[in-house]
Amino acid sequence: MENYLYFRKVRPATFSYTVTSGDVTAWANNPAGTTNLITVTGLGGDDIDSKTEFASVVVTSAGANSNVGSAYTAPTEAGDTVTLTADVESVSNSNVTIPEATGTGSPDATDGYTFIEGDVITITLQQGLETSVAYPSSRYKSIANTSATTTTITFHALKNGDGEEDDIVLTHASGKYSEVVKMIDAALGLAAGAGSASTAPTGKFISVVDGSDGVVKALKGYHDIDISGLVFTPTAGY
Amino acid sequence: MAIMENTLHFGKSSEEVEHNASGCLGLLSVDSNKLNVYFDGGSDDNERVENTITASNHEEVVKEFVSLATRARVNTSDFTVIVDLDASNNMTADEIRLGGKGISDITAITIA
Description:
The structure holds 2 protein chains of 2 kinds. Chain A has 2 helices and 15 strands. Chain A is mainly β. Chain A has 2 domains: about 5-10 and about 130-235, no CATH class; about 15-125, no CATH class. Chain A is elongated and about 60 Å long. The two termini of chain A are about 25 Å apart. Chain B has one domain (about 5-110). In chain B, about 10% of the residues lie in helices and about 40% in strands. In chain B, the strands form 2 sheets. A 4-stranded antiparallel beta sheet of chain B has the order 3-4-5-7, with helices on one face. A 3-stranded mixed beta sheet of chain B has the order 2-1-6. The longest helix of chain B is centred in the middle third of the chain and has 12 residues, at about 60-70. The interface of A and B includes residues 52 and 53 of A. β9 (about 130-135) of chain A pairs antiparallel with β3 (about 25-30) of chain B, so a sheet runs across the interface.
């Protein structure tokens, strides 16, 4: 029975951003549609492109603010919190857009939010679209040294097309390619369960790289590879 | 000692499907509460089962899937229930011996 190799992207538990006076000016004068734009960072090189990776978006107000959508109770003092509705934010290339509640352009008087300097926007992350993947050992195809600090692990695609491939690119300390190869080899070949007289050996769940909560955990014994990023690129159409 | 391959059962009241464990292509999180399992469709397209689970519980469900899918008995029936949401199923005691009712965290499935 074969092992399953599990990979999970690098994602912080939460991401916070404090609105600056420059943001307030820029967002108030944004003619494109009065959107507030923040960029989520600390993602190990793999952008967020789906709201499904957001569990919540909460604003901790810097003070009283009546310029909020009708869906919310307006904060009356510093420290008041407002949980933005699920429909208010969109995300592409890790850039989160939140429409303003007031102003010219295309404000959203219901779900929008016009920020004031010092507001803290806290995004809590969760598993969502393509956050994690597991492949049986038999789907492993190859490994390649793409640079001194990146290694590409290739699996036969979930799409199951002839010759289609899914790639997982790890970013790691310089010169650690051979260690990555050893790690994958170990994951593929870790001894299965022993079984017994009436039960055969079993396959195992092997967590190869887990970047949840902003802490990258590699397979036991291979932490010195110092993995800092994981980019998962599945063949489209799976 | 013959080791028989597991046949993995996904079922609900109106529909069911069985796949050979060796045909599994992988598992992928596709939403905060959804985990897809892909199987070889015998052509350019795969076949898949979308499983509705508790939010962010993907890893635990994958672990349980792997445990069930790779568990093998010797010289015996190898029918393994991954999920059975059909309250009135007529599987025999032997058929449900592996996996029982399956992974309890899966509350709905879509077979595609």
